[in-house]
Amino acid sequence: MSKSFEDILAKLKTASRKKLSVSVAQDAPVLEAVKAAKEKGIADAILVGDKDKIEEIAKTIGMDLSDYEIIDEKDQAEAATKAVQLVHDGKADIYMKGALDTKTFLKSVLNKEVGLRTGKPLSHVCVFELPGMDRLLFLTDVAFMPYPTLEDKKVIIEYTVAVARACGVEMPKVAPLAAVEVVNEKMPVTVEAAELTKMNEAGEIKDCIVDGPLSMDLAIDPEAAKHKAGALDRKIVGDADILLFPDIHAGNLVYKTMVRMGDVKNGNVLTGTKAPVILTSRSDSVEVKLNSIALAAVVAEDIKKGEL
Prior knowledge:
Number of strands: 11
Largest sheet: 6 strands, mixed
Radius of gyration: 20 Å
Order of helices and strands: HEHEHEHEHEEHEHEHHEHEEH
Structural class: alpha/beta
Strand content: 15-25%
Shape: elongated
């Protein structure tokens, strides 16, 4: 089981080298992450974008472009279309956002002719490596689906379980979060969490253990469980692998608090697509972008093996 991003990188040493298709690649942090991914043997890349700007940035970061295919396309929307088609056509394994706005990037992902749509909703999984925690923590959805319905939450769990299993977590523990850990009819989030638990027990949600509703402390802190009546009898006693947030507000607030105030490592991947999609923010560090490439690569490996 991967307990850190170093473990994920080690896991990739026995996997085949993947190929990235980078949309509008003229971005220094993105190119630095692509360079690092190549040096670590994770992935090669096809760079789609303004060739002159790509070459200019490459010089400033000491990146040798002789081993990279570059598709010169200065129009950003057209570059995105060409980049996503490479993945659609099987010429690349992973689609990565470069220096373009999210709306244009997602439009290419959902392109009916050459995109990566599956007909299912898209969701976002963020993976954290936290000091003092003996496992990776998978957060969802913190950036994409605003107000997921019960059926949406079922799909989000299935997506995130697949990502966790790709990282080596054989039977992920899923905590549908709420402010309290008991069902309260006046709090619909708790009712839905209990429904998800029943779906899991009935075999409708597989390859994981779902236990909700759970408050955040009971989900991630074993010590907290010792001080609450009945908590030690739960399926999850401070050892959740996956945190399912009730809506994007809760997820995004927790995510940004962890990133800005904690000594953490993280990476993310967009799910619900035919191939892994890396949708990082322009403000994300090179490390986050590299971790996201590694995460997408282990997911792509499971897709290749037919396990996803």
